[in-house]
Amino acid sequence: MQPFVPASWVRDRDVAVVDVREPWEYDSIGHLPGAVNVPFDAFRSDEGEAGKLPPRGEWEALLSEAGIGSDAEIVAYDDTQGVFAARFVVTALLLGHDPGRLHVLDGDFSSWQREYGTTTDPVDPTPAEYESDPDAETPLVDFETVRDLLPAVDAGDVTLVDTREEWEFEEGHLPGAVQLDWRELVDEGTRGLRPENELRALLTDRGIVPEKRAVLYCNTARRVSHTYLVLRQLGYGTVDLYEGSLTEWRERGGELVGNE
């Protein structure tokens, strides 16, 4: 799995490019040549499959209208260092798209502009037929699974990772969790991932190591999506996503520790 791909990789391949920014940004500021616009709010839902995942039928219609087929190789981008694009990619993965055909532009729209051209020309995609795979194996875990894993977290056998900011973590987090703000994984200058050696050192310092199962959460599963893809990029084996995240955990009376 190669979740993050450089601009040169995107330029040289025939892939479905998805811009998840707001329509006004896509239309007025410009976009990558051939990119279709699928705004972030279009694939977020409070009444979907789980957490913020959209209903499967709506997702299939959305991608079909965007001209994206079931077997398409997809590259998503935003202008926010990849966190919104990562959510699009993880949404596709959790709804059954082949993970080996899902990528995020390493960097974002601003970093692309430094090297390559953009356009404001409209893109009118030919509708495709997209079918998700409800039987696909995914890294999704639910409330009960996370709750039942807490003894293993306490024993040091599982790493529970909170990808929110430090102040959020201090206000309340799941028992035994370690804090890793997803923004620590990106370089402010390049707007893409930090060098691999720096990423590995940072993760090891927090106790997030490849040989140990990791379970990730944030508030609404947006930030956690980026961290999930980084760990997969680095070859981490068992990485699970708690889609419901802290929102569901609170609603269902899960134990919290911190300053609450």
TrEMBL record:
Q: Provide this UniProt record's keywords sorted from A to Z.
A: Pyruvate, Repeat, Transferase
Q: Which InterPro entries match?
A: Rhodanese-like_dom (IPR001763), Rhodanese-like_dom_sf (IPR036873), Thiosulfate_sulfurtransferase (IPR051126), Thiosulphate_STrfase_CS (IPR001307)
Question: Where would I find the Rhodanese domain in this sequence?
Answer: 11-121, 154-258
In alphabetical order, the GO MF annotations are: thiosulfate-cyanide sulfurtransferase activity
Task: Respond yes or no to whether keyword Repeat is given for this record.
Answer: yes
Q: Return the CDD domains for the record.
A: TST_Repeat_1 (cd01448)
Enumerate the Gene3D superfamilies for this protein.
Rhodanese-like domain
Q: Give a yes or no for keyword Magnesium in this entry.
A: no
Region described as Disordered: 116-136
Mind telling me what this protein is named? Thiosulfate/3-mercaptopyruvate sulfurtransferase
The source organism is: Halolamina pelagica
